């Protein structure tokens, strides 16, 4: 395995379109990096540049400390798993896995040993004599992973490998990929637009937008302290609630004016950094799980709870919990409540806000207020 360093990398085309604008990412040997973002953010372009399938306009890419800008894909010691599987339909699973070994003229006995090891790792020993057309989507993806594993490369590149699978298979394959990483301690760069994949798989995540890395760090850090409104709205399902309002002095502290259409009041914030902004408009970000039904809060917590009555717009039961949608300061707000909560569309209910992990954003540029 090997480390990966992406140093001030730019990508522009002849028509002047800038796709990547100074990307800086460093990961250690054995790390699992996720490149996540919406369509057109530049994540797949960056992956292709790491693989050598696209050229670097400016900057440097190093694999294992070695500059690879000018190296062809075959000389970079990488293996790539594609969204489309890219299996040879006329070949058996065994021959698909060993195809690259044949090209490299690896001895037949060594090929058998490698295929046996890889198929055991991915639990596809019973599929070795089948053709791709006889396999399910999840089995085909395992074979595509097996072909990459057979190479034993310095770096694995995954380009949205689960996009073609149904929801149940995606969950299963996420676990397969994570277990593979844990067993092999492999260095992986994984491209996805799915923030659930990003949160569950990666050691670190690079959230991208318009060719720029908006935030780079561990999943929980990005979830708890997003760098800006884009990251806060992209990471999390449902996404973070944004409540825009005016800051007012509240005793020795500061609060945000709240209007739910049923209740007008002040949401007390635990943020000394906001005292200098009293009188200004800001955006406060609160995760849905931090807003719940007041009837579920008991004991000491109930005495200090910040309660606001709302008119329920929509109720979405999900099984383990229920999502309740309402309006606060003219914007839609979603709370995650207990499934036994008797919430009904059009009815009033009292919500409790826990702002201990709330995040404040500057209204002018959307950046988090430290």
Describe it.
The protein has 370 residues and is α+β, with helices and mostly antiparallel strands. Helix content is 25%, strand content 34%. It has 2 domains: 4-229, P-loop containing nucleotide triphosphate hydrolases (Rossmann fold, 3-Layer(aba) Sandwich); 241-362, Nucleic acid-binding proteins (OB fold (Dihydrolipoamide Acetyltransferase, E2P)). The strands form 5 sheets. Strands 6-7-8-3-9-10 form a 6-stranded mixed beta sheet, sandwiched between helices. Helix 2 packs across helix 3 (108-121) and helix 4 runs parallel beside helix 5 (167-184). The radius of gyration is 25 Å and the shape is elongated. The mean pLDDT is 92.
Biggest sheet: strand arrangement:
6-7-8-3-9-10
**Major sheet description:** 6 strands, mixed
Radius of gyration: 25 Å
Please tell me what the overall shape is: elongated
Please give the domain count.
Answer: 2
The top-level CATH class of the largest domain is: Alpha Beta
Known CATH architecture of the largest domain: 3-Layer(aba) Sandwich
> pLDDT under 50 segments (min length 5)?
none
Cα separation of the termini: 37 Å
What portion of the residues fall into strands of 2 or more residues? 25-35%
* SS-derived structural category: alpha+beta
Q: What's the count of strands?
A: 21
Supply the CATH superfamily name of the largest domain: P-loop containing nucleotide triphosphate hydrolases
The third-level CATH topology of the largest domain is Rossmann fold
- Which whole number gives the mean pLDDT? 92
The SSE string, one letter per element, is EEEHEEEHHHEHEHEEHHEEEEEHEEEEEE
Query: So how many helices?
Result: 9
As a percent range, the share of helical residues equals: 10-25%
């Amino acid at each position: 395995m090997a480390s990966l360093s992406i140093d001030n990398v730019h990508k522009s085309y002849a028509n002047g379109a800038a796709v990547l604008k100074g990307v800086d990412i460093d990961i250690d040997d054995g790390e699992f990096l996720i490149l996540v973002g919406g369509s057109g953010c530049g994540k797949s372009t960056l992956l292709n540049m790491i693989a050598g399938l696209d050229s670097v306009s400016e900057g440097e890419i190093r694999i294992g400390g070695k500059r690879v800008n000018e190296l062809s894909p075959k000389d970079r010691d990488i293996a790539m798993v594609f969204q489309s599987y890219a299996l040879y339909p006329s070949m058996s699973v065994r021959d698909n896995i060993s195809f690259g070994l044949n090209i490299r003229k690896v001895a037949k006995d060594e090929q058998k040993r490698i295929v046996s090891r890889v198929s055991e790792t991915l639990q596809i020993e019973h599929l070795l004599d089948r053709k791709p057309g006889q396999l399910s989507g999840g089995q085909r993806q395992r074979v595509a992973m097996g072909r990459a594993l057979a190479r034993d490369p310095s770096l694995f590149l995954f380009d949205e490998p689960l996009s073609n699978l149904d929801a149940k298979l995606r969950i299963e394959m996420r676990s397969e990929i994570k277990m593979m990483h844990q067993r092999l301690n492999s260095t992986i760069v994984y491209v996805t637009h799915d923030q659930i994949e990003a949160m569950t798989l990666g050691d670190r995540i690079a959230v991208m937008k318009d060719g720029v890395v908006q935030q780079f760090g561990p999943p929980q850090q990005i979830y708890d302290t997003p760098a800006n409104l884009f990251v806060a709205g992209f990471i999390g399902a449902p996404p973070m609630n944004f409540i825009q309002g005016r800051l007012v002095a509240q005793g020795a502290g500061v609060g945000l004016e709240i209007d739910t259409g049923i209740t007008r009041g002040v949401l007390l914030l635990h943020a000394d950094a906001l005292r200098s902004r009293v009188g200004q408009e800001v955006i406060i970000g609160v995760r849905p799980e931090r807003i719940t039904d007041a009837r579920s809060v008991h004991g000491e917590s109930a005495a200090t709870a910040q309660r606001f009555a709302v008119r329920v717009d929509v109720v979405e039961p999900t099984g383990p919990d229920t999502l309740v949608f309402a309006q606060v300061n003219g914007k839609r707000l979603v709370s995650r409540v207990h499934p036994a909560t008797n919430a009904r569309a059009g009815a009033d209910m009292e919500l409790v806000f826990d702002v201990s992990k709330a995040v404040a954003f500057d209204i002018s540029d959307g950046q988090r207020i430290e």
